[in-house]
């Protein structure tokens, strides 16, 4: 066999020449280097892209093109799959390019990798367009959320407050004039319509912008969202959250992601259970929403039926420097995970117990609310009862603190959503400046997150503005006598968290401690040197003041507030 017999056929040789010419003149950079990173081949596209001539390039290492944080050496590239990867390159004049890199490993006759060929495409303009698109999307979302917040505030602070004022004035009419039975019944029916209208305004306002998120933060907002979802969808949720001091933008992004994810579960998952988790992993805040429903194959939906949900959620996550991952298996459910950098955990403190206010012939009340019409309505209602005297009012925190410096009051009714200082911070200030005054939070918000927060800030009662008007009078009377007035379904939560401490006399504390230790009424009487009837009266008074009836609940209260060294609830006496 002669040497010429090893030459490839003429047609194959011409094809190789054409391919070589195509590679040489390609606008994409084509580079070949050995496993020591030395450049062996350099086409015109590489010369145009990076600025080095062929002779100059063949004398240098490929590492000269690599920024310090984007080092992909030839030996590393041998392990790279055939799929293109995104990286960065540095040009001769110092510019940094975004590059889409495709790797081809060249082998010797024994099958060993000896050289690496890369085809590199400049995608800098494309990446900048994507970044600009994300910035535009973020600005659009920001504008939408700003407008939603404005509309929600207008509904809540405008229409909602006016309707509440009308309701109070309406229910004050029977005490101001003589009405027939039919007229009074019509007034009650009209009041029912007003209650429905106030509730509807609250629902629309909440949909536009969740007040819990604005006022209390991400964790309470998620709790409220999940509670509302369970009531609406009948899907049982397992909710686990941590208290976080998330930036407003991060909190809003994660809330909207959870909201959209739950909506998708309600519409498409066909499941009876789901879960929501908010946790901290290292420096990241992680939101996980999962279900065990029908699942889906990502990207499998027909183009005509695809919405913008998942894409919008990804952009939400990216807008706060995070990422979104969706895992779904048909027939086994879906898991959505959002992750983004987060601030440190929030830590809450506890306020000191304050002394009991002195009784007065008429209970002196001070009103703090930024809506004059609502203050007028409350004043009109309280004045017809004959039990209360409105001795002052204020529309904001500064006016309230200034007036209350020199004014002796028994009960302060304060709106929790004031311009400037919010109601919670004002309550803390009033505990210090007016320690004898009892505080009642007054709000359109009925969520437990608001109740717990205001309890932590030291209020003695919480009344919603859409509650029956008589409820406000009852709350004023109860807290003035040293008791508490919170929604009944919140009592256990508040006691277990040690958020509220009504004023107890020395004798009441002694009786409570003995009852918590398991003593019966006769034993309490013998210990304190009082009659059994007196011991029973103390017990009944404690139950009314603390809004607790069972001995077990009284014991729980005593332990929670450190009144007894017991670490476990005592058994109730026989």
Question: What integer is the average pLDDT?
Answer: 78
User: What spatial form do the alpha-carbon principal axes imply?
Assistant: elongated
- Strand count: 15
Counting DSSP H or I runs of 4 or more residues, the number of helices is 20
State the end-to-end distance. Answer: 113 Å
Q: How much helicity do the residues have? A: 40-55%
Q: What fraction of the residues are assigned to beta strands by DSSP?
A: 15-25%
The largest pleated sheet is described as: 5 strands, antiparallel
Oligomer: single chain
Q: Overview of this structure, please?
A:
There is one protein chain. By secondary structure, this protein is α/β, with parallel strands linked by helices. Helix content is 47%, strand content 18%. The strands form three sheets. A five-stranded antiparallel β-sheet has the order 2-1-5-4-3. Strands 6-7-8-10-9 form a five-stranded mixed β-sheet. Helix 14 links the parallel strand 14 and strand 15. The longest helix has 53 residues. It is elongated, with a radius of gyration of 35 Å. The chain starts with 9 loop residues before the first helix and ends in a 14-residue tail after the last helix.
């Amino acid at each position: 066999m002669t040497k010429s017999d090893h030459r490839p056929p003429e047609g194959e040789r011409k094809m190789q020449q054409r391919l070589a010419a195509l590679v040489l003149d390609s606008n994409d950079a084509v580079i070949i280097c050995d496993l020591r990173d030395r450049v062996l081949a350099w086409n015109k596209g590489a010369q145009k892209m990076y600025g080095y001539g062929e002779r100059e390039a063949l004398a240098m290492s490929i590492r000269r093109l690599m920024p310090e944080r984007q080092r992909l050496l030839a030996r590393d590239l041998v392990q790279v799959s055939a799929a293109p990867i995104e990286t960065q390159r540095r040009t001769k004049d110092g510019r940094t390019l975004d590059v889409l890199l495709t790797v081809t490993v060249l082998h010797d006759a024994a099958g060993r990798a000896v050289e690496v060929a890369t085809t590199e495409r400049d995608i800098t303009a494309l990446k900048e367009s994507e970044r600009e698109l994300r910035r535009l999307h973020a600005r659009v979302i920001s504008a939408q959320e700003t407008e939603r917040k404005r509309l929600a505030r207008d509904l809540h602070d405008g229409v909602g407050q006016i309707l509440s004022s009308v309701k109070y004035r309406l229910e004050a009419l029977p005490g101001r004039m003589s009405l027939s039975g039919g007229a009074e019944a019509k007034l009650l029916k009209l009041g029912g319509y007003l209650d429905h209208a106030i509730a509807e305004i609250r629902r629309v306002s909440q949909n536009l912008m969740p007040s819990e998120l604005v006022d209390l933060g991400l964790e309470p907002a998620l709790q409220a969202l999940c509670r509302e979802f369970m009531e609406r969808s009948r899907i049982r949720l397992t909710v686990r959250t941590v208290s976080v001091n998330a930036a407003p933008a991060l909190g809003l992004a994660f809330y909207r992601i959870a909201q959209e994810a739950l909506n998708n579960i309600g519409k498409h998952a066909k499941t009876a259970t789901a879960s929501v988790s908010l946790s901290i992993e290292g420096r990241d805040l992680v939101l996980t929403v999962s279900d065990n429903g029908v699942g889906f194959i990502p990207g499998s939906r027909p183009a005509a039926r695809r919405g913008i949900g998942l894409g919008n959620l990804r952009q939400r996550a990216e807008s706060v420097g995070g990422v979104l991952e969706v895992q779904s298996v048909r027939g086994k459910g879906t898991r959505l995970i959002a992750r983004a950098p987060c601030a440190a955990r929030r830590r809450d403190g506890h306020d000191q117990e304050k002394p009991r206010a002195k009784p007065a012939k008429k209970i002196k009340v001070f009103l703090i609310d930024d809506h004059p019409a609502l203050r007028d309505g409350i004043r009109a209602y309280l004045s017809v009862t004959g039990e209360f005297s409105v001795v002052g009012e204020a529309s904001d925190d500064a006016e309230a603190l200034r007036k209350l410096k020199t004014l002796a009051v028994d009960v302060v009714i304060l709106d929790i959503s004031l311009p400037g200082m919010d109601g919670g911070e004002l309550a803390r200030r009033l505990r210090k400046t007016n320690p004898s005054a009892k505080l009642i939070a007054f709000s359109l918000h009925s969520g437990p997150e608001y109740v717990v927060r205001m309890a932590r800030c030291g209020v003695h009662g919480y009344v919603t503005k859409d509650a029956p008007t008589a409820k406000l009078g009852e709350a004023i009377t109860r807290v003035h006598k040293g008791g508490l007035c919170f929604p009944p379904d919140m009592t256990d939560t508040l006691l277990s968290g040690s958020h509220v401490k009504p004023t107890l006399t020395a004798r009441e504390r002694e009786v409570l401690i003995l009852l918590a230790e398991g003593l019966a009424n006769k034993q309490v009487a013998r210990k304190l040197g009082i009659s059994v009837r007196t011991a029973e009266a103390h017990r009944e008074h404690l139950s009314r003041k603390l809004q607790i009836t069972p001995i077990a609940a009284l014991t729980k209260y005593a332990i929670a507030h450190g009144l007894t060294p017991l670490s476990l609830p005592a058994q109730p006496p026989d």
